[in-house]
Amino acid sequence: MKNLEKIFKGLANRRRLAIIKLLAKNKQLSVTDIAKQIKLSFKATSKHLSVLRQLDIVDRNQVGLTAYYRFSHTLPHPVNMLVSTISNSRE
Q1: Which residues have a Cβ under 8 Å from the Cβ of 3 and sit 6 or more positions away?
Q2: Which run of H or E residues covers position 46?
Q3: pLDDT of residue 91
Q4: Distance between CA atoms of residues 89 and 91, nearest Å
Q5: What tens digit of pLDDT does each residue of 6-39 get?
Q6: What residue ranges do the domains of the chain occupy?
Q7: Fewer CB in a 10 Å sphere around the end CB: N or C, the chain?
Q8: CATH of 2-76 given 1.10.10.10, 3.20.20.80, 3.90.1200.10, 3.90.190.20
C-alpha cells in the first residue's frame, strides 16, 4: 500500500502527468524534446523525470550525451492501468 501511495504522490503533478502523456504518444523522447513540449527548463524537466524514474514508471537510456526516457517495462498492473488512463485523458 505504501508503494501505491508513493506512486500517487509522484503522479500528483501536472508536469509529470504531461510527461506521461507525451511518452504514451511517442514511446521514447529525450529530455530536451520533453522540455520543449511541456515548456519547462531542461533542469526542471530532468527533476520531474528523476521522480518518475525513482518510482520505476520510466526508464532512462543514455546514448552519448543524450538521455532518452520511455515507460518502464516492469510497471505493476495497477500502475500500468493508471498510466493508460492518464494517457487517454483529454486534459
Answers
A1: none
A2: helix 42-54
A3: 66
A4: 6
A5: 888 988 999 999 999 999 889 899 999 999 999 9
A6: 2-76
A7: N
A8: 1.10.10.10
DSSP element (H, E) containing 63:
strand 58-63
pLDDT digits (tens, 9 = 90+) for 74-84: 877 777 788 78
- Please name every residue paired with 60 in a beta bridge, in sequence order, or none if there are none: 69
> For the chain, how big is the Rg over CA atoms in Å?
12
- 27: DSSP letter: S
CA 17 – CA 11 distance, rounded (Å): 6
Of 30, 18, 86, 26, the residue nearest 63 (C-alpha): 30
Cell of 32: 530536451
Distance CA 68, CA 85 (A): 23
Model pTM greater than 0.90?
no
Contact yes or no for 72/58 (Cβ under 8 A):
yes
